[in-house]
Protein: Alpha/beta-hydrolase
Organism: Dichomitus squalens
Amino acid sequence: MGQSGPLLRRQPFKGLYIAYLVGSTVLIRLPYWCIRYALPYMRPRSSWSLRRCVTVAAYREVLTGVPLKLGLDNSHPPPTSDNELKDAKFVRIEGLSEDSVEFCGELRRATRRTGIRPETISAYWFLRPGTNITRDLQATAGEKVAMHIHGGAFYLNSAHPDDATSQLSLGLLAHSHSLSRVLGVDYRLSATAPNPPKNAYPAALLDCVAAYRYLVKELGFAPENITIVGDSAGGNLAVATTRHLVENSIPGLPPPGRLLLCSPWLDIAGSRGGPNDPRVCNWYSDILGGLSDYPHRAYLGTLIDAGDKKTNPYISPASGYITETEGLFKGFPRTYISAGGAELILDDSIVAAERMEADGVDVVLNVEPDAVHDYMIFTWMEPERTEGLKKASKWLDS
Ligand SMILES: *[C@@H]1O[C@H](CO)[C@@H](O)[C@H](O)[C@H]1NC(C)=O
Ligand SMILES: *[C@@H]1O[C@H](CO)[C@@H](O)[C@H](O)[C@H]1NC(C)=O
């Protein structure tokens, strides 16, 4: 390992810091939270149990910031064989060819501006429990499929079945009867200082378009029977992928039939504010420990100062800095957006739904009042998680 970088990433400081974090959480924070949230009226949401209040506080005040501070990598390495995975199959997907019809529009422009290139990526097929994993991957007649783009602020998590975000894919498989498999896309994650910079925009978008192309052109799925699913930053990529397909009318690659978003992060510019903004008033009821600028800097790379954060609809389609909103979502497929009423970036979902509706998109917005950001991936967010998944699956099956 290099000698540079923040102190906390080096031993013995890293070990000492972890010991301090664990010690102070158990001895000081935990007792404090138990007193602070002892009675229902003292809790961020009176419906919440004490256990949930403590879990949310632990995420917000301790866990969310840790990977970056300590340089921890929570992505999972690809498996060495399918036998390592349960009811899942690992595949490689070729990057877009720069001579292909898909490599057009904003993707081509952004690639020129940034020097970011297409690459081969990994993906995981999540199968219904008990499915023969050696099955042929080609689409069967009339088969429906979902392509899940996971969350993690563009720099965390993975599509691996052991990752927390896979709970969304697994939840949809468990509750929808029209889906028999979901493709989880392991798009490239971004990084920036103090890490070596890598995979800024449009790397992840290139990867998601390549995964969609794989479903349609290699496996033969009908676009109308594909749902692109995304949570949090994955919701941003799901919208951008759909936008690329809608705006460019690519021969042989029409847009998907549906779009399903859970707590999508669509205003990277953080264009709203004020005391009534959920970013302020939901501070104590969400897991996000404030939005540091690391994800923006990592994802935008050299474009960070180029205004793209504020007004590029491929990056911030719910931004308040976009003043001409008419037509912004024109031609988008049927969309379902689910968000938590207790989350910081609730307005991203509300504004996107409003803009879609104004453009004539068939959109449904569902807000689970007391749920946190990206609640469908947290198995401790019950009963909201199951409720939300059931509603989304019902929409998917309709
Ligand atoms: C799984 O499918 C393969 C290929 O179709 C077949 O050869 C194999 O016998 C099947 N395994 C089981 C357990 O059904
Ligand atoms: C999409 O799925 C429906 C329902 O399974 C099926 O009837 C239809 O033929 C499929 N579309 C295409 C183009 O295959």
Summary: Strands lie at 88-93, 121-127, 144-149, 179-186, 226-231, 258-262, 334-340, 363-368.
